[in-house]
Structures are given as C-alpha cells and as structure tokens.
Amino acid sequence: MLSAAVLLSFSAQADMTPFIGGSLQKIERQHKGKPFILAFWSASCTHCPTELKALGELSRRYPKLEVVLVAADTPAEAPELERLAQDYGVAKQARWVFADAQPERLRYEIDRRWYGELPRTYFYDGRGARQGRSGVQPAEQLEQWVVEHLK
Q: Which H, E and C letters describe the chain, residue by residue?
C-alpha cells in the first residue's frame, strides 16, 4: 500500500487518481443510477489504443457518455500514461492508475473472474448491472451500447 505522502505527491503530479482497495466502490457510487463504461488498459497493451481511441471518439460524439479509465500500470508511469491519454483522445475522461504493490488484489476486488487480460471493459447499465468483456470491443458494438443506454 502506498503511503499518504506518496499518494499526495503523485496526485499533485498528474491528473490521474490512485486506484487502491475500495476505489471501484467509490467509482460505482459516483456513477450510481447512470450508465457508464469502465475501461482497464495499460501503456504496454498492444490492443488498448484501438479501444481507447474508439472511446475517445464516442465521448466527443456523445458528450453525456461517462467513461472511466483505469491504467493497470504504476503511478511511476503516470507521465507516459498522461501522454498516451492525450494521443488517444481520452485525456478529458476520469483517469485512475493502479497504486497497490499487489495488483492481483485489485483485480480480485474488481472481478474474481478477471485474470489481468487487457483491455478489459465493464458496461454499467445505470440500474446496477454490469457486464465485463475482455479484448478490444468493436467500435460498432461500443456505439450500439451507448445509443441503447443514453436515451
């Protein structure tokens, strides 16, 4: 677990929030009653740019779309993650980064059936249900979900 001083120093450097135990519940409370997309990615993920660019484009076309991004990297990589968020067009989205020395604990808390494959995307319908999918979600399917849930 990171110390409070490290967390404060980190948050002053970047627009990313440390993702620690309990962060998922905080995100879910913040978006309660609203549909949103929670997307896990990494700077080293080969397939993540495709999905992040599609999410950035959807966010521009559908301003009401709530997207929360969580990088499964470390706070030390925040500058690179920030640069990539700019490049992918998702810098305006809420951005978090894993900040636990044991990322397995975070993955277990997020989804006991998730083993770390990226990208990993969760679709929250606004009524409390969520659906998780691994791999790149085709842009057409992402848009279909947005159209169905942002009526």
A: CCCHHHHHHHHHHCCEEEECCCHHHHHHHHCCCCCEEEEEECCCCCCHHHHHHHHHHHHHHCCCCEEEEEECCCHHHHHHHHHHHHHHCCCCCEEEEECCCCHHHHHHHHCCCCCCCCCEEEEECCCCCEEEEECCCCHHHHHHHHHHHCC
Q: Which pTM value belongs to this model?
A: 0.90
pLDDT tens, residue by residue, 11-63: 434 589 999 999 999 999 999 999 999 999 999 999 999 999 999 999 999 99
**112 alpha carbon, distance to own chain's centre:** 17
pLDDT tens for residues 89-144? 999 999 999 999 999 999 999 999 999 999 999 999 999 899 999 999 999 999 99
- Can you tell me the distance from the alpha carbon of 112 to that of 41, in angstroms, rounded to the nearest whole number? 18
Each domain of the chain, given as residue ranges in start order, spans 4-149
Q: 4-149 domain in CATH 3.40.30.10?
A: yes
